[in-house]
Amino acid sequence: MARFAIAAAGLGKPISSSAMEALINQPGPIAVRTVASSDWKADLSGLINLKDPKAVQAGLTDHEEPIQIHAHLVRHPTQGFFMIDTGVSKQFAEDPKSVGVPWVLKSLAKMDKLQVREDALSAIGSEGVPLKGVLMTHLHFDHISGMPDVPKDVPFYTGPGEAEEKKFENVVVQGMEDRFSEGRPAIQEFQFTKDPDGKLEGVINVFGDGSLFAILTPGHTAGHLSYLARTPTGPVLFTGDACHTRWGWEHGVEPGSFTFERESERKSLLQLKALSERHPNMIVRLGHQP
To answer: Is the pLDDT of residue 131 over 50?
Structure first.
């Protein structure tokens, strides 16, 4: 049984990676603001594969690593205001029981270390225009934790199979997800096709004008997405949790225990790394660190 109601997204059309790359160095119309919605801590063994030879050689050991929960505010001149992920709502942080967060998650997720900086409601209000949609990298609890602040009629978009993923962690947060999704439209799944160029798994031209792209990067979750925006100052890549940390990105080491399928995760990370190296002016925004 799916965790959310699902529908095929009417937004976006498949495009080849080569067609995308032919466009992305040209200045584009997308304005972006990354919001550090909260400070948090997580075990490094979840954020980085400490068994990777590079991590072993660097002498990395498990500890509580400072991280952040982000939301990215995206403005298109005609399509309007969208968010990439949701940040954190004050209700989620201050009264988690009220939004269905179980006690076991509070403990496992170190929610006592969560400090809100700019809550989702404030971030949404800062734009001064209606929110048109939320583009999710994936549906893990820390990426939907701003959902209580998102108006009920705003659609959410995900990658294929994301809303159906079944794992123990999803059973733990089922009640929270049910509470968050109640009364909302069906999750909109982007309709990917295989990238004919083989450089990426698949790419969606979100608004149809080559300004914003959704990139299929499975591994952290079954339907994980990253996004690439063409801004006036150059391309900006939002990796989502294809890479959590700056060290992981710089050394090409995938996340650790916080992953669904390791080989896919590593492949997705290296594909994004190669993409950024082909376009050296690209700004990279990581999942949980600056």
So the answer is: yes
Separation between Cα atoms, residue 238 and residue 254, nearest integer Å: 15
Q: At 33, which amino acid appears? A: R
In 3D space, the residue among 9, 2, 5, 36 whose CA is nearest the CA of residue 214 turns out to be 9
For residues 159 and 148, what is the distance between their CA atoms, to the nearest angstrom?
Answer: 21
Report the pLDDT averaged over residues 140-159: 94
Instruction: Tell me if 176 sits within 8 A of 100, measured CB to CB.
Output: yes
What confidence tier does 166 reach under pLDDT thresholds 50, 70, 90?
A: low
Burial call 216-238: b when 16+ CB within 10 Å, e when fewer: bbbbbbbbbbbbbbbbeebbbbb
| Percent of the chain whose predicted confidence (pLDDT) is above 90 | 81
Are the C-beta atoms of residues 185 and 8 closer than 8 Å to each other? no
> How far is Cα 142 from Cα 139, in angstroms, rounded to an integer?
8
- In angstroms, the CA 150 to CA 131 distance is 8
Count CA atoms within 13 Å of residue 227 on its CB side.
31
pLDDT: is 193 or 2 the higher one?
A: 193
In a 13 Å sphere around the CA of 264, the CA atoms on its Cβ side amount to 15
d(C-alpha 28, C-alpha 8), whole Å? 27
User: Are 226 and 241 spatial neighbours (Cβ–Cβ below 8 Å)?
Assistant: no
Q: How many helices and strands in the chain, by DSSP H and E?
A: 10, 14
State the Cα–Cα distance between residues 102 and 85, nearest whole angstrom: 22
- Average pLDDT of the chain is 92
Q: How far apart are CA 211 and CA 236, in angstroms?
A: 11
* C-alpha distances in Å from residue 249, one per residue of 17, 120, 157, 226, 271: 21, 26, 25, 14, 12
Threshold 0.90, pTM exceeds: yes
In eight-state DSSP terms, residue 251 is: H
Do residues 31 and 236 make contact, with C-beta atoms less than 8 angstroms apart? no
Q: Are 88 and 114 in contact (CB under 8 A)?
A: yes
